[in-house]
Design a protein that fits this description.
The protein has six helices and 13 strands. The protein has helices spanning 67-73, 121-127, 131-139, 172-180, 186-193, 200-207, and strands spanning 2-8, 12-16, 19-23, 28-29, 34-37, 40-41, 59-63, 88-91, 103-106, 109-116, 144-150, 152-154, 161-164.
Length: 211
């Protein structure tokens, strides 16, 4: 995996259901290094800290490889990296091959794979259609958030160096399926709730589905 683009945003005002609010989803390429801090990416707009930013969602990664699929569905958009609100666009990020808890070195930062992105209406605002929420869920390549174990700077071209593989875990794709499925795989639930790479609140939520 390799960084294709580093992306940041400034607060953007939007209107949703008649109410005005701000969002940081409108990210654009920086063409410069960015600093990954423990609670977020330096100089990046994070508005709703209930659902974004913080220890387990300090930075969002999305795969360059998925862009072609979405460009075919939304050909009239003004496409550039950062379209999905990701801080890092990553070549060859494959949710079926990365595991929750995997640890990587990127640039001079050390990071850990945490949880997949669950889309909200702001992605629909970004794409000009709320249909993308269902499409995003059905496509099931959601990208991933990361936890910053050691803060540091990353830049375009940096390669992910695997430090520790957590194979006694779920892949990001498996966890995403577990989260969105009505019928939860009980074995997968047990793996998830015992995985300290996931935030305690998420583990508690999933524990409620154990039979």
């Amino acid at each position: 995996m390799q960084i294709t683009s580093t992306n940041l945003s400034k607060p953007t005002t939007i209107t949703w259901n008649g109410k005005t609010q701000q969002t940081g989803i409108f990210k654009t390429p920086t063409n410069m290094p960015i600093f990954l801090g423990k609670s977020g990416v330096q100089n990046d707009a994070v508005i709703d800290r209930k659902y974004h930013g913080g220890e387990f969602k300090a930075c969002y990664l999305f795969s360059e490889n998925q862009y072609g699929y979405w460009q075919d569905l939304y050909p009239n958009l003004d496409w550039d990296w950062g379209m999905f609100g990701e801080n890092l666009t990553v070549k060859n990020l494959d949710e079926t091959k990365i595991y929750v808890g995997d640890i990587y070195k990127i640039g001079n930062a050390i990071v850990q794979i945490t949880e997949p992105r669950e889309p909200c209406f702001k992605l629909g605002i970004r794409f000009g259609s709320q249909s993308i929420i269902k499409q995003f869920i059905e496509h099931s390549f959601p990208g991933t958030y990361i936890r910053i174990i050691e803060e540091g700077t990353v830049e375009k071209g940096d390669v992910f160096q695997l430090i520790e593989k957590n194979t006694n875990s779920l892949t990001t794709a498996e966890l995403f399926k577990l989260i969105i499925s009505k019928e939860k795989n009980q074995n997968h639930l047990k793996l998830a709730i015992n995985n300290e790479a996931l935030p305690p609140k998420k583990r508690q939520q999933l524990e409620g589905f154990l039979k």
